[in-house]
Amino acid sequence: FRKFIFRGIELDKLLDLTNDELMDLVTCRARRRMSRGLRRKPMALIKRLRQAKKEAPPGEKPRGVKTHLRNMIIVPEMIGSIIGIYNGKMFCGVEMKPEMIGMYLGEFAITYKPVRHGRPGVSAAHQTRFIPL
After folding, report:
1. 62, 46 in Cβ contact below 8 A?
2. What are the pLDDT digits (tens) for 14-27?
3. Sorted alphabetically, which PANTHER family does this protein's record hold (predicted)?
4. How many CB atoms are closer than 10 A to CB 75?
5. Can you tell me the distance from the alpha carbon of 103 to that of 53, in angstroms, rounded to the nearest whole number?
6. In 10 A of CB 14, how many CB atoms?
7. Got the DSSP string for 76-101?
8. What is the pLDDT, as a whole number, of residue 122?
9. In the structure, how many helices (H) and strands (E) does the chain have?
10. What is the mean pLDDT of the chain?
11. What domains are there in the chain, each with its CATH number?
12. pLDDT for 86
């Protein structure tokens, strides 16, 4: 069982970091966003995640918390939580893992259905349209 290390810091130490110390570890885009402070909605989501973790029985996963905040950056405090991220149609349940720190919630709830291409060429249904005269 391998211990998770994020940019040279172990997970249990990551949880103790202040926001300023965490900012030094993430990418420039996330650092710029965090420097501008957390607004009311992201703080409310973190508060609800704390509540769900507290209510969960020991050794079990917490209940899912739904959100529309696709542009929120994942912080170490969210690790282990289950978040329902809205993709425009439904809420995709995603369990937060240590590897996700510094990424956006929206990266884990795809907003489109990937294309499944059929057989190449003209299908039998469409061949009847082009009848030579």
Report:
1. no
2. 888 888 888 888 99
3. RIBOSOMAL PROTEIN S19P FAMILY MEMBER, SMALL RIBOSOMAL SUBUNIT PROTEIN US19
4. 22
5. 21
6. 21
7. GGGTT-EEEEE-SSSEEEEE--GGGT
8. 61
9. 5, 5
10. 87
11. 5-110 (3.30.860.10)
12. 93
Average pLDDT over residues 1-9: 84
DSSP H or E stretch at residue 9:
strand 9-10
Cα–Cα nearest to 109, from 79, 66, 80: 66
Distance CA 15, CA 79 (A): 9
> Looking at residue 4, what is its pLDDT?
84
Cα–Cα dist 40/31, whole Å: 18
Sign (positive/negative) of CA torsion 63, 47, 107, 13? negative
Contact 46, 78 (CB under 8 A): yes
Q: Is the dihedral of CA 79, 84, 86, 91 positive or negative?
A: positive
Q: What digits encode the pLDDT tens for the residues 34-61?
A: 888 878 998 999 999 999 999 988 888 8
CA distance 26 to 63: 28
Closest CA to 70 of 94, 87, 82: 87
